[in-house]
Amino acid sequence: MTLADRKIWMDGRLVPWSEASVHVLSQSIQRGSLVFDVMPCYATPRGPALLGFREHTERFCRSAELMAMDLPLDLEGLLKAISETVQANPGTDMVKISAFNAGFSLDVLPSDAHPSIAIAAFGLVDVLPPGMELFVRPARLQLADSIKLPPTVFSPQAKVAAGYTAASVAKAHARSEGFDDILFLDGAGNVAESSTQSFMLVRGGEIHVPPLDYVLSGITRRATLELAEDAGIAIRVAPIPKSALDEAEEAFLTGTTINVCPVERIDDRRFSAEVPGPVTARLRERFERMVRDEDPVFSPRWLQTV
Ligand code: PMP
Question: Is 77 found in the same domain as 105?
Answer without folding.
Answer: yes
